[in-house]
């Protein structure tokens, strides 16, 4: 197993180096020069091979002594259509006449800012960039006495102020990506391990707890379990999980292809659900899952043949669980992917993702140690415990199917599982088992009543019998569905209010948290009445879905993009991952006055 892991890591490293050598650094992709002529200031930008600029991202502004937009008064070469965008492939030469500057505001000194964003045909998109130049008029310069020391201090203060302002205008994801660039490797890895510990208490990791627990219980049937053995099994699971996150992240960062999102299609989810159903019936004793005999024969030739069979199975389960069970997108993950995409540094980005995954796996390691330490010796009781975990595996299978099947059918499946579990546990005569089985059976009855009534949320089976408050709340927030970039641009053009674009998918657990918790909060509903609400469903991961995600640097749902009433994107308000109502309102209050 160690040789396999080392081999895979070496392949990833070699692959990342090969790709990294082909990626142009920002200063190679975009060479910007300000040229001062007799009657004008020219901005020349030379583009690297296969590099293009987004036409709608170009900005030319006077920033001092007053902020004034200039682009609408300037002549640019005609852009072309490419991959659904309006872009420039040729070098640009933007001429700004001095007469234009004087007509906007009369001054002896101007600071000109040029903003742009571009991509490579290879699929790599660069972060928005800007270049500034201070323009003096010669007659005025001769009369001005400049103290070099004071001027140096002034420039440093202006640079610090500008840097601070730019950081304040960055989103949480962009700040994390910037920290990767600016911090030492050791600090980056320590920080991302801390991010992983925080993410360990999110819905991404919770489903893996019963999966790992069932593996340990199954392993305990035939041999005694110790804390050391439990830790070893959970470590194999966590390392495989971390490897999967790393590979998927590096691929997404370099190519813009979200491997985890690609695996959230109905065929894969149904197939993986049947794997858990098979595991459940194996735990019920109907059959035993084994590796193919040819593989078993090769493994058994080693000194630890039987143990290696189990290790390989656990590693496979950990690898697949990371890709299919928990495809959550959070700011640290998005920040690492943005960093990889901007710099091509797959090595540091991959290392950050790997240690973040290890942090996420800490609770799983603790479960392995605890299960190994407190697990009694194998005996008849283990058969009952194994069957209980078989019921839990059926629950995991329904949880996966819930992403692709009708919510009402999902309600019926949950009710049947609870009713069956309640009946099954009645065979145990212990008073605690009897009490638990009765409670589970009652919940099953409640769930079946809810399903018959048309309820779709297992946590709110009686929602159709309530006074209707929750239904009214849900109707109060009306999202306009967007399917492609053209529809989005049309909706933004027609809006007279600030705008929110919600990236959503049926398989996204955190998206449902936003829907059921944040967007149903009274204060949030009241605040959002002043916004135009747009939603794009990226469940199918179609070409249109990929294009609109690429446009805004979204690596996966949930993500929220904001525009102000002037139709300017508010980058500092961008949200990635779940935010509770309080956090959500704080972001809105910080970025929107009304």
Q: Any descriptors?
A:
594 residues; alpha+beta; 5-stranded mixed sheet; 4-stranded antiparallel sheet
Please, could you describe this protein's structure?
- One of its GO terms (biological process) is cell redox homeostasis.
- InterPro entries: Cyt_c_assmbl_TM_dom (IPR003834), DsbD_gamma (IPR035671), DsbDN (IPR028250), DsbDN_sf (IPR036929), Thioredoxin-like_sf (IPR036249), Thioredoxin_CS (IPR017937), Thioredoxin_domain (IPR013766).
- This is Thiol:disulfide interchange protein DsbD.
- Its EC number is 1.8.1.8.
- One of its GO terms (cellular component) is plasma membrane.
- With 594 residues, the protein is of the alpha+beta class.
- Helices cover 56% and strands 14% of the residues.
- The protein has 25 helices and 16 strands.
- Strands 12-14-13-15-16 form a five-stranded mixed sheet, covered by helices on one side. Strands 6-7-3-10 form a four-stranded antiparallel sheet, with no helix packed on it.
- β6 and β7 form a beta hairpin.
- α1 (2-22) runs parallel beside α9, α8 packs antiparallel against α13 and α12 (293-300) crosses α13 (305-325).
- The protein starts with a helix and ends with a helix.
């Amino acid at each position: 197993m160690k040789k396999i892991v080392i081999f895979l890591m070496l392949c990833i490293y070699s692959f990342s180096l090969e790709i990294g050598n082909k990626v142009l650094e920002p200063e190679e992709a975009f060479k910007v020069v300000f040229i001062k002529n007799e009657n004008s200031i020219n901005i020349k930008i030379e583009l690297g091979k296969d590099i293009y600029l987004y036409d709608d991202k170009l900005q030319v502004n006077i920033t001092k002594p007053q902020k004034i937009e200039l682009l609408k008064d300037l002549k640019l070469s005609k852009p072309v259509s490419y991959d659904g965008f309006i872009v420039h492939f040729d070098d640009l030469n933007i001429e700004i006449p001095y007469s234009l500057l004087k007509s906007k505001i009369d001054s002896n000194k101007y600071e000109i800012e040029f903003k742009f964003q571009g991509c490579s045909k290879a699929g790599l998109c660069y972060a928005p960039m800007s270049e500034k130049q201070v323009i003096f008029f010669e007659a005025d310069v001769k009369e001005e006495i400049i103290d070099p020391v004071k001027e140096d201090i002034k420039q440093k203060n202006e640079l610090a102020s500008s840097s601070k302002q730019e950081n304040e205008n960055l989103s949480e994801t962009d700040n994390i990506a910037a920290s990767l660039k600016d911090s030492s490797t050791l600090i980056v890895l320590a920080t991302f391990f801390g991010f992983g510990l925080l993410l360990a208490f999110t819905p991404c990791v919770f489903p893996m707890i019963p999966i790992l627990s069932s593996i340990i219980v199954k392993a305990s049937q035939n041999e005694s379990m110790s804390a050391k053995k439990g830790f070893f099994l959970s470590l194999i699971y966590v390392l495989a999980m971390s490897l999967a996150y790393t590979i998927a992240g590096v691929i997404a960062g370099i190519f813009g292809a979200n491997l985890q999102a690609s695996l959230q299609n109905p065929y894969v989810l149904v197939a993986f659900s049947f794997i858990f159903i098979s595991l459940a019936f194996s735990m019920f004793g109907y059959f035993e899952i084994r590796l193919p005999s040819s593989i078993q024969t090769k493994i058994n030739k080693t000194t630890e043949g039987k143990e290696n069979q189990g290790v390989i199975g656990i590693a496979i389960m950990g690898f697949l669980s990371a890709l299919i069970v928990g495809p959550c997108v959070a700011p640290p993950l998005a920040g690492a992917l943005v960093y990889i995409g901007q710099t091509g540094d797959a090595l540091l980005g991959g290392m950050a993702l790997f240690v973040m995954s290890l942090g996420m796996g800490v609770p799983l390691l603790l479960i392995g140690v605890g299960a190994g330490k407190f697990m009694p010796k194998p005996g008849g009781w283990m058969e009952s415990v194994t069957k209980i975990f078989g019921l839990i595996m059926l629950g995991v299978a329904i949880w996966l199917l819930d992403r692709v099947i009708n919510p009402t059918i999902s309600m019926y499946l949950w009710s049947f599982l609870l009713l069956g579990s309640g009946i099954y546990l009645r065979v145990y005569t212990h008073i605690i088992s009897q009490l638990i089985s009765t409670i589970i059976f009652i919940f099953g009855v409640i769930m079946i009543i809810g399903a018959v009534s048309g309820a779709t949320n297992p946590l709110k089976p009686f929602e159709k019998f309530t006074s209707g408050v929750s239904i009214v709340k849900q109707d109060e927030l009306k999202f306009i569905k967007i399917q492609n970039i053209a529809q989005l641009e049309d909706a933004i053009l027609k809006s007279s209010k600030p705008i929110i674009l919600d990236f959503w998918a049926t398989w996204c657990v955190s998206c449902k948290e936003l829907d059921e918790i944040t967007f149903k909060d009274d204060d949030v509903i009241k605040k959002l009445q002043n916004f135009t609400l747009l939603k794009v469903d990226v469940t199918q991961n179609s070409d249109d879905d990929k294009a609109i995600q690429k446009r805004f640097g979204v690596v996966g749902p949930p993500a929220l993009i904001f525009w102000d009433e002037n139709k300017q994107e508010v980058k500092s308000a961008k949200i990635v991952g779940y935010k509770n109502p309080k956090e959500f309102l704080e972001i809105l209050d910080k970025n929107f006055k009304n």
